[in-house]
Amino acid sequence: MKMSRLMNETVREAPSVTEVKGHELLLRAGFVRQVAAGVFSYLHLGQRALQKLEAIMRQEMDALGGQEIKMPLVHPAALWQASGRWYEIDAELGRLVDRNGRSLTLALSHEETLAELARQEIRSYRQLPQLAYHIQTKWRDDPRPRAGLIRSREFTMLDSYSLDADDAGLAAQYQAHYDAYFRIFARCGLPVLAVEADVGMMGGTQADEFMYLTPIGEDTLLLCDGCGYRANRQVATFRKPETGGDTQAMQFVAELVVGEEKLERVVTAVLAHHSQLNETKLVHLLDAQRLRPTADQATDLWLVDDGVTGWSGQVDKVADIAAAQDGDACTSCGQPLRTVRAVEVANIFKLGTRYSRTMGVTFVDAHGVAQPIVMGSYGIGVTRLLACLAEQHHDAAGLVWPVAIAPYQVHLLALRGGLETAVSLYNDLQQAGIDVLFDDREERPGVKFNDADLIGLPLRLTLSQRSLAAGGVEVKIRGDGETAVVPLNDLLNHVTAWLAEQ
Ligand SMILES: [Zn+2]
């Protein structure tokens, strides 16, 4: 690609105020542009980088035996009503009405759509197991989009769905994804940690999140250096200390969703004096309550944390509803837990029969008996991953892309006296299968060098009267700044060999 043909230029200052360095660089280097709050256009360089990420993901999913499909962005509301999520999820779910007055949703994930496909296509145990994946746009109407692509409203995900006859099959596909995700992140150049996680709005029985540790992250993780325990704060457990019986009570009104109805109930949470309430744990307790509603919904509900001693007031349920904090003791080994900030880049869920039971997705087993299909769902935020990679791979001058995901492998610069040779080198490199961004613009050398550093392609090749006089092409590695002059007739071999080593 010739830079003179690109629609956008680099910019010295970020177009919008941003507190996240990686996002600022993606804006300045011309990878993305904001269209609305949490909604972005991907310019050519950004789109190229996304394609590289997606290619790695396709390879790894194909290696698991996955079949690539594509499900729509727009779903009939009836599917989401069947699973119950139409009622369970609030304003985050995009809803619209078509010209015939039919309710539709914008995909927030695709469990329902896949379950409906399975309901139509799968008859017999002989058709199981199955694994289907797609790379598709999602819409989640986040009330606080921030940090660019890290927390956007429209985003791209790789999501896959496993169908099995039993829990053992699900466990195998879950483990296969767990391992494949580590390979994907390693190939992209993003260090991640897998932690125990909340099943959240997907539902199900087990979830792990893949976390990129960074101070800009909004998730808090609890890590134990003693035994390796790792969990999102939403689910982290800890050994409750002895308390002197001092307690605090928090009262609020909870909305309980029962089918299409919403009921209000006054809930009081009782915690040890020094504890913090864990809202996720509390919500799960209330969900469990929903399944066995009491006769009189107006009665107050008293939930008491299991770390509280000496409580003599009303008790409807004793459970863990406290949030683990830095320094709390690990449940397993007693060592102090420490907290770190992180961005969630992927998650995997054992859905079990949560969707197949509610949506009637069954298969006939070897004994001729209809059974619910056992499902798993797995997802990586592709656009969020791009943002995390920009955060991980940059320096003061700009982005520093690993070869595997760089939009182009080589940045070719033509300076005074070097244009003619550069044009022929551009053709040679492309014929050799090397991705080249060619700075053919009529700009000062300083502008071209600054732009090359900002865009951050792995190898910079400079052709000028001076480099030719010195014996050939100046080759600079963006990562460590190492520079050498390579003779023209040796350049293709040099570049090919260097790329192969990465
Ligand atoms: Zn521990």
Task: Produce a short descriptive summary.
This protein folds into three domains: 15-206 and 346-391, BirA Bifunctional Protein, domain 2; 247-323, 2-Layer Sandwich (Zincin-like), CATH 3.30.2010; 408-501, 3-Layer(aba) Sandwich (Rossmann fold). It has 13 helices and 29 strands.
Output the keywords.
single chain, BirA Bifunctional Protein, domain 2, alpha+beta, globular, Zincin-like, 502 residues
How would you characterize this protein structure?
- The protein is α+β, with helices and mostly antiparallel strands and 502 residues long.
- Helix content is 28%, strand content 31%.
- The protein has 3 domains: 15-206 and 346-391, Bira Bifunctional Protein, Domain 2 (BirA Bifunctional Protein, domain 2, 2-Layer Sandwich); 247-323, Zincin-like (2-Layer Sandwich), CATH 3.30.2010; 408-501, 3-Layer(aba) Sandwich (Rossmann fold), CATH 3.40.50.
- The strands form 8 sheets. Strands 3, 7, 8, 9, 10, 11, 12, 19 and 22 form a 9-stranded mixed β-sheet that branches. A 5-stranded mixed β-sheet has the order 26-25-27-28-29, with helices on both faces. A 4-stranded mixed β-sheet has the order 13-14-16-17, covered by helices on one side.
- A hairpin with a 2-residue loop joins strand 13 and strand 14 (261-272).
- It starts with 20 loop residues before the first helix and ends with a helix.
- The structure holds zinc ion.
- Zinc ion binds at residues 224, 226-227, 229, 330, 332-333, 335.
